[in-house]
Amino acid sequence: MAFKLDAIRLHRLEIPLVNFFETSFGRTYSRSIILVEVVSDGVSGWGEVTCGEHPFYNEEWTEAAWLLLKHYVAPAALGRTLASASESGASSAGIKGHRMTRGGFEAACWDLEARIQGVPLWQLIGGGARKEIPCGVSIGIQDSVPQLLEKIRTEVEAGYRRIKMKIKPGWDIDVICAVRREFPEILLMADANSAYTLHDIDHLKRLDEFDLMMMEQPLAHDEIIDHAALQAALKTPICLDECIRTAHHAEQAIQLGACRIINIKLGRVGGFAEAKRVHDAAHAHGIPVWCGGMLESGVGRAHNIALSTLPGFVLPGDVSASKRYWKRDIIDPWVEVTPRGTIVVNDQPGFGYALDLEFLASVRVAQETLRP
């Protein structure tokens, strides 16, 4: 269904996390989030820019994303009539990288089209393979092993189906060993966020003894070839995250044997259109995928739920309950997880949740409306 973009409104929010979250990149206590609101004939669609506050996960960070949206993405899109949301990425295709920024705009266009059509977002993107999303949780590096074990126990008792723990040199083998002693049966994965090199291959081989579901992104963000060498030496499946920004990257990684699993993050690949292409490439080769998270607010979380209804998302993703991260979310109702460790997909138009505009306004630190 064709629509014309009459305005693009940018919202910058500052929301404290319930607990700090630490990876090999550092520790985060709050999130600086940009929401992109696209408006057509009085109807708004919403997307979230999922980059971090600093350019450590990739080249993007919040302040740069705001400028890119204002000076490049929005001017190229405003006033244009799009035949469908699938065309929304074309206006910014000339921009090198910055997929999370562009993806926030693209996701907003998909939400807008779904709302105009009066259909749920998952239906518009071709999802619907499941009406309940199996959930896992991501637990950051803690101050002590007992603190980590207690956090894992809390999440297991809450029903989550998979535990992902962050690792880095000095916080890996001994810590995973302690977790396995305490929780011998849980689905457990380790996420390294590019903290190792091939020089660590003998060290990483020791992870094979712990029956991990997968090890995520152990090597650098641009090292598909090195990951192929590492995967050939390991029994533990490697899951690629930062390396996979396009379907072409996915095809290359699969052909080289660099991974056995792929994490698809909506922002990292630039939105729904490319996420679907990555999903289709993996699905065609029998490679399972799952939906990764970036400490999203309820808007980004709802988009991840829609994405996770595509058929290839057979592994529990990082789509967890709002209350794990926020004292109050910007959507109403919040995302909730059932006692069986799932999120029930709803059939409301668009991404499926109402915005808590009063709370959104209270945490907004900047706003700008752009017009043709």
Describe the structure.
The protein is α/β, with parallel strands linked by helices and 372 residues long. It folds into two domains: 3-118 and 354-370, Enolase-like, N-terminal domain (Enolase-like, domain 1, 2-Layer Sandwich); 124-344, Enolase-like C-terminal domain (TIM Barrel, Alpha-Beta Barrel). 31% of the residues lie in helices and 23% in strands. It has eleven helices and 17 strands. The chain has helices at residues 62-77, 99-117, 121-124, 145-157, 173-182, 201-205, 224-233, 247-256, 272-284, 298-307, 357-363, and strands at 3-4, 7-23, 26-40, 43-49, 81-82, 132-134, 137-139, 163-166, 188-191, 214-216, 238-240, 261-264, 289-291, 331-332, 342-344, 354-355, 364-370. The strands form five sheets. The chain has a seven-stranded parallel beta sheet. It has a four-stranded antiparallel beta sheet with strand order 4-3-2-17, with helices on both faces. Helix 9 links the parallel strand 12 and strand 13. It starts with a strand and ends with a strand. The model has no long low-confidence stretch (mean pLDDT 96).
For CATH, the homologous superfamily of the largest domain is named as Enolase-like C-terminal domain
Derived structural class? alpha/beta
| Name of the CATH class of the largest domain | Alpha Beta
Domain unit count: 2
Distance between the termini: 21 Å
Low-pLDDT residue spans:
none
Spatial strand order of the main sheet: 7-8-9-10-11-12-13
Rg from alpha-carbon coordinates: 20 Å
Mean pLDDT: 96
User: What is the molecular shape?
Assistant: globular
Order of helices and strands: EEEEHEHHEEHEHEHEHEHEHEHEEEHE
CATH architecture of the largest domain: Alpha-Beta Barrel
